[in-house]
Amino acid sequence: MPQWSDYTNGQRIKILRGREITQPQLAERCGLSVVTIQKAEQDKVLSLTTLLRIAGALGVDTSVILGQQAPRRAMSMDDRAMLRELSRAVHDSWVGLLPRTVAAPSADELRAAVDACWARYWEGHYAEAGAIVAPLLEAATAHRHEQPHDRQATAWGLISDAHRLAAYVANLMGARDLAYAAIGHAQEAAESAADNMRHALVTSGRAWVYLRDSRLKAALDLAEKSAVDIEPRFSRATPGELVAYGSHVNFAAVVAARLEKKERAKEFLSQSHAAGARLGEEIAAHGTRWGPVSATTQAVGVNVGLGRIGKALALADDIKDVSALSPAAQNRYSMDLALAQAHARQWDASLDTLEETLTKAPEWSRHQVLPGVIVEKVGRASTARLRRVSKLLGVSNPVTGGFDTATEKSAL
């Protein structure tokens, strides 16, 4: 399979344009003639002005067209455009550069917008969530500017929430530099808000960025700190405190499992189960959701990470109903189950689980690494159904899946 650098500039433009947009449509977006686009794709002429305009219209850096870096996997043109707009909003709003048309909504209106954005995120509509976050960042900043200097804590808290959302979307879609910038802004805003809970949530968010950047030890240190900072007294903890603690101590278990620190992972899992049991049902708070079903389904993935495949499958056998989970959490559980089945050499069962999720949630799936890991693992068994599942993933090589050879340790 050719590497991205093996193509010519013209071929890369044509690939990035894809089936979503015709040459005339690209020309219109660039403010160029169709002939200019044709010459660029035929490698006849590509001036600096044409390069910059085409890159902007396609939503990529010029380095991608020039073959100096590959485009992000499964990234559509709409995804790229969303990330560019999100990047602009993250950087510009932080230094106070706001469009003149931005209005300053009330704090209640901003809270409702944050909740709506988290809902889209946990439904697996990441591009839509990112599209909402960009104007949310600007509106939250405008709101803060209207508050007296000594009454800005609430506004800073909302800005922290918006930047944490931006970091989550960017991190999940592979825009690591943007994720680092946004989570850094979220941390500074949480400190200005003097809100210990928000600060701990941001710390856990930074740990997730570290995990996806393969900085595992630093991720574990931050994940543990976040869990300790918000550990409540169970006898008098509010539901919101239990949700935050349960979900974030579970994340600490995930990271510990990636580092093969089995005893610490088991200890964290025990605490996450205790929080879920105390809640008694799935409850949403602080941009996440937790409860007894979440604790059990998440434990499946942690046990796979620990190499306890029998334990993971036994837990899965006891899970009868996951409808209380968010769509994204349901999909993630299915991927953990498919991976456990692949480890157990239950090839057909693994492909059944994977194919069902890919068919049900194609938008969610294309932003995940784990489906490719599963395809690669099952591919070694040479099953007859593998090619169909690979096609759902949008890859041509059923053995490697066309993915970077990412290990399961970084496939969160």
TrEMBL record:
Question: Where would I find the HTH cro/C1-type domain in this sequence?
Answer: 21-65
Q: Please give one Gene Ontology molecular function term for this protein.
A: DNA binding
Report any Pfam family annotated for this entry.
Answer: HTH_3
Protein name, UniProt field: XRE family transcriptional regulator
This protein's source sits in the domain of life called Bacteria
The record's listing under SUPFAM superfamilies reads:
lambda repressor-like DNA-binding domains
